[in-house]
Design brief:
- With 65 residues, this protein is an all-alpha fold.
- It is built from two helices and no strands.
């Protein structure tokens, strides 16, 4: 059975990406370029958190062997 190790970075990353996608879409629809830019920043922050989570996972996997 495969063990699921989801850390806080992956969860926060997914939340940031979702929030960013909503802001980006609302900004596009309403013509609010500031909100659209905030959405892009949030999506980038989410991607960075996911990468940090991947690094943590790789470190944990390396020490488990």
């Amino acid at each position: 059975m495969e063990k699921w190790n989801i850390d806080k970075e992956h969860i926060k990353g997914a939340a940031d990406k979702a929030k960013g996608a909503v802001k980006d879409t609302v900004g596009k629809v309403t013509g609010d370029t500031k909100m659209q830019a905030e959405g892009k920043v949030d999506k980038a922050k989410g991607t960075a958190r996911n990468v940090a989570g991947d690094v943590k996972d790789a470190a944990r996997d390396a020490t488990d062997d």
